[in-house]
Specification:
Oligomer: single chain
Helix content: over 70%
Radius of gyration: 28 Å
Shape: elongated
Order of helices and strands: HEHHEHHHHHHHHH
Number of domains: 2
Largest sheet: 2 strands, parallel
Number of strands: 2
Number of helices: 12
Strand content: under 5%
Strand order of the largest sheet: 1-2
Distance between the termini: 65 Å
């Protein structure tokens, strides 16, 4: 609260401060667009050129703003930034967006332009000076034009073939970073925990003990798979992406795969819990087969045969061991 109290409210800004704020905002946006261009240059060169063009547009607007400030207020521009003004729109740090994929970055850029347009329109309503109102209205129009410029630049640099190529690269990266390790984790969690959970269930016929063993096996397998995936490949040469992301995907899905058939043992009645757990196992195995077919292009019936048969054998082994 003390920090917010130290920030200036938007309606308290003078005309000079509004122009200074616009100058710093345009500079920040140009740097963000150039950062996007740099991070996309290797895999998405066409889209990188779009962001370079948008950064150049921001530079042009900043130059116009500086010229206007010099004409009205002189060469000394007050230092005022977004964080100095309460209620002013913020920009997400680049590192929070850069790992979310090319479509998310494009969406973020569109939102940036809309935010800037709304700022200038709101600012124009707050001034009684005709010159300032015209200036802010022109800036709002310029930001709206930015959105059109982005579309024009995209049409110029990204034709259908380029878009298909970039989408294919983005999809491949998504598969390598999230789907593949997540699927491996789900398979491991669903299958590897079957034997200990059902062996415990049939050996003790105690649902609470079975639940505890299932949770321990699932969490332990998740931690193990997560660290193994993260440590196996730093992604630099293989192109599989961030080891942290892959580790999270693998670890979380491993845990989920095991917990699916452990949670029914919260039900006190042994046979009710066991029947539900077995049904969930087959749902999990069919889900794995579906994911393999959808994302990994594995023929569905071959995936079903491999996963369901393998899972059924492990389940049977657990039941036999526990019953013995």
């Amino acid at each position: 609260m003390r920090f917010l109290a130290q920030r200036k409210k938007f309606h308290e800004l003078t005309e000079q401060e509004i122009i200074a704020l616009a100058i710093s905002s345009e500079e920040d946006d140009a740097r963000i667009y150039r950062s996007y261009a740099e991070m996309l240059r290797d895999e998405f060169p066409a889209t990188a050129r779009i962001f370079e063009g948008m950064a150049a547009e921001e530079d042009e607007h900043r130059a116009r703003l500086i010229a206007l400030h010099q004409d009205r207020f002189g060469t000394t521009i007050p230092l005022i930034r977004r964080e100095h003004v309460a209620g002013y729109y913020n920009r997400r740090p680049v590192w929070l967006v850069e790992n979310l994929g090319i479509d998310r970055i494009r969406t973020e850029a569109t939102a940036m332009e809309r935010d800037a347009e709304r700022f200038y329109l709101a600012a124009a309503k707050r001034t009684q000076d005709a010159g300032t109102r015209k200036l802010l209205g022109d800036l709002a129009a310029a930001e709206a034009g930015h959105q059109g410029t982005a579309k024009d630049l995209e049409a110029q640099h990204v034709d259908d073939d380029v878009r298909e190529d970039e989408d294919a690269v983005s999809k491949r990266q998504f598969l390598l970073t999230w789907v593949q390790p997540g699927l491996a984790g789900l398979m491991d969690g669903s299958v590897s925990t079957l034997a200990p959970i059902f062996a415990t269930a049939f050996a003790t016929q105690d649902t609470w003990t079975t639940f505890l063993v299932g949770v321990a096996a699932s969490v332990g397998a998740g931690i193990s798979m997560g660290f193994t995936e993260a440590a196996s490949d730093d992604g630099e040469l293989s192109g599989r992406g961030s080891p942290l992301k892959r580790g999270i995907a693998s670890g979380v899905m491993t845990t989920v795969g095991g917990l699916g058939h452990a949670l029914p043992y919260l039900i006190p009645d042994f046979w009710t819990a066991t029947t539900l757990a077995i049904l969930i196992v087959f749902v999990e195995l069919w889900a794995i087969a579906w994911i393999q077919n959808k994302y990994m292009e594995t023929p569905f019936f071959r995936a079903v045969f491999q996963v369901v048969l393998g899972g059924a054998l492990v389940l049977a082994a657990g039941v036999l061991i526990g019953s013995g």
